[in-house]
Design goal:
Elements (H helix, E strand, L loop, with lengths): L27 E7 L3 H14 L4 E4 L15 E2 L6 H21 L10 E5 L2 H16 L5 E3 L1 H7 L15 E5 L3 E2 L2 H14 L3 E3 L4 E7 L2 E7 L2 E10 L5 H6 L8 E12 L7 E4 L4 E5 L4 E8 L11 H14 L10 E9 L6 E4 L5 E5 L9 H14 L13 H4 L6 H4 L4
Parallel strand pairs: 1-2, 1-11, 2-8, 4-13, 11-18
Antiparallel strand pairs: 3-7, 4-6, 5-6, 9-10, 10-11, 12-15, 12-16, 13-14, 14-15, 17-18
Helix pairs in contact: 1-5, 1-8, 2-8
C-alpha cells in the first residue's frame, strides 16, 4: 500500500515515506492548475512529463483529491455514441491500459467489462445503434441477448416476470474500474517528483487580469501570478468564471452513491441500467458500490436526497434479489457540472491565458488520463488539441453540440 499523503500546508515535509511535498506557494508560476482532482493532477503531470513545463502549481481549496475524485464510483468505459466522444474516451481508455506501468504504481485497474442493460424495445434499438457506432469508431462493443446476460451475471434476475425485464445489453469487455484514491496519489506523486508544487488549503477567490488577459489568481494565501491558468474545478468552475463576468452553460447537481459492507464475491463485472437509473459493481475488497442518476435540483452540497437513494435501492433489489440481504454501510455525494449536451468543455476562453476543462457531468473520472493529456497539450500550445476541438465553448453559439444524453444516461 502507498504511504499516506502529505499533511495540509505548513512547509515541506521531509519525513520519509511521504508521497509529495507540502510547499508554500510562490509569487508566480508559468502555469497554475486550479483543482487537485484527477483532471487537475493529470494535467499537471502531463505538462511536466510531456511538455517539459515544470514551473507549475496545482491549487486546491481543501485537501488533495478530496472533491469529486474521492466521491466517484471508479467506473471506466469508452462506449459513447458520437465520434467526438468516442475519440476522447477511447483515448483515455488506452492510456488507462498502460497507466500502471507509466506511473509505476498499482492502481487496482480491473478490465472486468461493463454491461448496459436494455429493458424496452426502445432501449434495444438505441443500444444496438450504439454498438454499431462504437465499432465504427474502433471501440470494442457487443450486443448480448438475455441468455448471454444471464450467463455473464448469474445474480441478475433476467426472468420475464420482472418489473424491468432484461431484453439484452451492450457489453464493453475492456471497460472496468480502478481505485480513484490510488490514481490520484500516483498522479500527484509523479507530478511532485517532476517539480510541480501541490498546494493544499489554498482557495482561489478571483483572478488577476489586465484587460482581457488573465495574469494570475487571487487566493486565500495571497495573489499568485501565472502565464496561464487552467481551470479544473468541476462544479466550482462556473463560480470562478462569474468573477470575470463569464457565464458558463453549466448546472451543478449533487450525485449520490452508496456502499455495502464487505460481501463474498457475487459480481465480477459492472452492470448499469439506464432506464431505472442504477448501476452496481463489486470492489476488490468485497463491498458493493451502487450509484444512481443526479438529484433533480441544483446545488453544491456534498449530500443528496433520501428519495434518490430509496429509488436506486428499490431498483437494485428488483434486478438483483440477492441484494435484499445486503445493508447500506454509507452514502455520499459529489457535485457534478452538467452542460446542455452532456459533453465536456475543453479549451480556450474569451480571456487570454485562461483555459477551461469542465462540464464532464458524471463522466469525468473515466476520462482522467485522456482529459489530462489533451488539456495539458491545449494549455502548453495555446490551441485546442485535435481531440478537444469539438468540445470548445463556441459550440453553444454555433449549435454544433455533441449530444451525449443517451449514451451518458445514468452517465457513469
Amino acid at each position: 500500500m502507498p504511504a499516506l499523503p502529505a499533511a495540509l500546508p505548513g512547509g515541506p515535509d521531509p519525513r520519509p515515506g511521504r508521497l509529495w511535498r507540502a510547499p508554500e506557494p510562490r509569487a508566480a508560476y508559468d502555469v497554475l492548475v486550479i483543482g487537485s482532482g484527477g483532471h487537475g493532477l493529470a494535467t499537471a503531470y502531463y505538462l511536466a512529463a510531456e511538455h517539459g513545463i515544470t514551473d507549475v502549481a496545482v491549487l486546491e481549496r481543501g485537501w488533495l483529491a478530496g472533491g469529486n475524485m474521492a466521491r466517484n464510483t471508479a467506473i471506466i468505459r469508452s462506449n459513447y455514441l458520437w465520434d467526438a466522444s468516442a475519440g476522447i474516451y477511447e483515448h483515455a481508455l488506452r492510456l488507462w491500459e498502460g497507466l500502471e506501468e507509466e506511473l509505476g504504481r498499482d492502481l487496482h485497474f480491473s478490465q472486468r467489462g461493463v454491461l448496459n442493460l436494455a429493458h424496452s424495445t426502445h432501449d434495444v434499438r438505441e443500444s444496438v445503434r450504439r454498438v454499431d457506432a462504437n465499432r465504427l469508431n474502433g471501440v470494442d462493443a457487443e450486443w448480448l441477448g438475455p441468455d448471454e446476460v444471464a450467463k455473464l451475471v448469474p445474480v441478475l434476475d433476467t426472468g420475464p416476470h420482472t418489473r424491468h425485464p432484461v431484453l439484452g445489453a451492450t457489453y464493453q469487455p475492456r471497460a472496468g474500474i480502478a481505485d480513484h484514491d490510488l490514481v490520484a496519489w500516483a498522479f500527484a506523486a509523479e507530478a511532485d517528483r517532476l517539480g510541480v508544487d501541490l498546494v493544499q488549503g489554498c482557495e482561489v477567490t478571483g483572478f488577476l487580469r489586465s484587460g482581457d488577459q488573465v495574469r494570475g489568481v487571487r487566493t486565500t494565501r495571497g495573489d499568485i501570478g501565472a502565464g496561464a491558468v487552467a481551470l479544473c474545478a468541476a462544479g466550482r468552475t462556473s463560480v470562478l468564471t462569474e468573477t470575470l463576468g463569464l457565464r458558463l452553460p453549466l448546472q451543478s447537481h449533487p450525485l449520490q452513491a452508496l456502499v455495502t459492507p464487505l460481501l463474498e464475491p457475487v459480481l465480477d463485472t459492472v452492470v448499469m441500467s439506464n432506464a431505472v437509473h442504477v448501476y452496481v459493481s463489486q470492489a476488490p475488497k468485497g463491498e458493493l458500490v451502487l450509484g444512481a442518476g443526479i438529484d433533480g435540483y441544483n446545488g453544491y452540497g456534498q449530500r443528496g436526497s433520501f428519495r434518490t437513494v430509496e429509488d436506486q435501492v428499490a431498483a437494485a433489489v428488483e434486478l438483483y434479489p440477492v441484494f435484499a440481504h445486503a445493508e447500506a454501510l454509507r452514502t455520499w455525494a459529489g457535485t457534478v457540472d452538467v452542460s446542455p449536451d452532456a459533453s465536456p468543455v475543453i479549451g480556450r476562453t474569451p480571456f487570454e491565458g485562461l483555459y477551461l476543462n469542465c462540464g464532464w457531468g458524471t463522466g469525468g473520472y473515466k476520462a482522467t488520463p485522456g482529459a489530462g493529456q489533451v488539456f495539458a497539450d491545449t494549455v502548453a500550445n495555446g490551441r485546442p488539441h485535435p481531440l478537444a476541438e469539438p468540445f470548445g465553448l463556441e459550440r453553444f453559439t454555433t449549435g454544433a453540440l455533441v449530444d451525449e444524453h443517451g449514451a451518458a444516461a445514468v452517465a457513469h
